[in-house]
């Protein structure tokens, strides 16, 4: 069989890595002779796809983008739909059409005219009228629908040919989990090292400074795209309410094009709240293993429901407990009080209470981390994910 796969991005965030997993699964299957991937632009995802020896085509896609809608960039949504004829001609060459998101409008326009197997993988939770509109489009498409969590499925109207397949994570390559220290502290150490200590006493003094800088701060990781609902500002404001707590928050990620001011605003807030020694920023990195390894605990404080919560299972794979907002797909991953804590969404008091438990009890932190690793291995491994995809693609 030949399959064409359509994705809305070329980054390496959660949905992009999940899409890459599916393409990797297809490349390992003897059932698919040709795999073609459609992307709207170039980006770090392309490098990973090229390793799988798949064909990549860049194409203007009609994406239901919040940025386009808010900035009234209607042309970017409407004009790609005019290439209906050429897209249908391309899609007709394949036995299976796989679409990785609900926001690609081209698919809904084409779907009624495509006779081959159609699969759409839903990884978003729409609100209000958008849910009803997308549910109508999905029904008309007559496609098989994969939801990445029960919570995602519940956000749509009842649809035929629906199934839930939780996301999985392939695990990180074996890495040394070395004790890390804050970036600012590393800069101080570089200053000390520039003195080029040569005597044993001088080296001992530097070692003493290093040990002082490695004071027992709870290292908290918030990783993912920076936007209005992922909770970066919420986490910063919560830390301001616990000024004496020994914590260090590392925010890792970048914004989508056109929203760069969000990062500047967050950094300004950190300075205004006097948290520059407790909060540090890192740009998006494609290799996140060392970032997770640095942390003691990962947080997912999203103010809107996460369709799944891939960040959680990535952290759990390295024995990191997770503190997450109790909505969306996250309660399907984290067992409260066992592999982490769930807190009432947008409730700073509840969130601070969870962090405080780990500060007060390192043994609890370690216990939850061990439990998290077990949950990841039992429920979110790649093998189980591939078996469920076999069912979805009728390869059993």
Automatic annotation (TrEMBL):
InterPro entries in alphabetical order: Glyco_trans_1
Superkingdom of the source species: Bacteria
Domain Glycosyl transferase family: 208-374
Protein name: Glycosyltransferase
Organism: Pedobacter gandavensis
Lineage of the organism: Bacteria, Pseudomonadati, Bacteroidota, Sphingobacteriia, Sphingobacteriales
């Amino acid at each position: 069989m030949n399959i064409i796969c359509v994705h809305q991005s070329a980054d390496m965030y959660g949905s992009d890595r999940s899409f890459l997993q599916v393409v990797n699964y297809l490349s390992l299957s003897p059932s698919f002779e040709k795999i073609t991937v459609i992307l709207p632009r170039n980006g770090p995802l392309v490098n990973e796809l090229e390793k799988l020896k798949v064909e990549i085509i860049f194409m203007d896609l009609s994406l239901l983008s919040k940025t386009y809608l808010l900035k009234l960039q209607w042309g970017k949504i409407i004009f790609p739909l005019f290439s209906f004829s050429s897209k249908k001609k391309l899609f007709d060459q394949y036995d299976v059409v796989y679409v990785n998101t609900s926001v690609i409008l081209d698919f809904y326009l084409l779907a009624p005219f495509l006779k081959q197997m159609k699969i759409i993988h839903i990884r978003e939770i729409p609100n209000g009228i958008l849910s009803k509109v997308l549910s109508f489009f999905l029904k008309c498409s007559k496609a098989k629908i994969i939801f990445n969590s029960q919570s995602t499925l519940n956000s749509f109207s009842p649809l035929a040919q629906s199934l839930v397949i939780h996301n999985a994570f392939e695990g990180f390559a074996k890495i040394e989990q070395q004790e890390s220290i804050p970036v600012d502290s590393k800069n101080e150490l570089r200053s000390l090292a520039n003195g080029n200590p040569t005597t044993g006493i001088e080296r001992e003094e530097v070692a003493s400074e290093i040990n002082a800088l490695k004071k027992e701060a709870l290292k908290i990781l918030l990783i993912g795209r920076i936007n209005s609902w992922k909770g970066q500002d919420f986490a910063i404001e919560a830390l301001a309410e616990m000024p004496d707590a020994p914590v260090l928050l590392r925010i890792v990620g970048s914004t989508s094009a056109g929203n760069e001011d969000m990062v500047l605003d967050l950094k300004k807030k950190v300075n205004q709240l006097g948290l520059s020694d407790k909060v540090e920023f890192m740009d998006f990195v494609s290799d996140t293993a060392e970032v997770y390894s640095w942390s003691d605990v990962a947080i997912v404080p999203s103010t809107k429901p996460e369709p799944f919560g891939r960040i959680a299972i990535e952290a759990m794979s390295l024995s990191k407990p997770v503190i997450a907002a109790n909505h969306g797909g996250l309660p399907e991953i984290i067992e409260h009080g066992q592999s982490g804590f769930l807190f009432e969404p947008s409730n700073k008091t509840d969130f601070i209470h969870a962090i405080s438990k780990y500060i007060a009890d390192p043994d609890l932190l370690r216990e939850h981390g061990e439990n998290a690793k077990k949950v990841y291995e039992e429920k979110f491994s790649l093998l189980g994910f591939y078996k469920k995809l076999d069912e979805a693609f009728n390869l059993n």
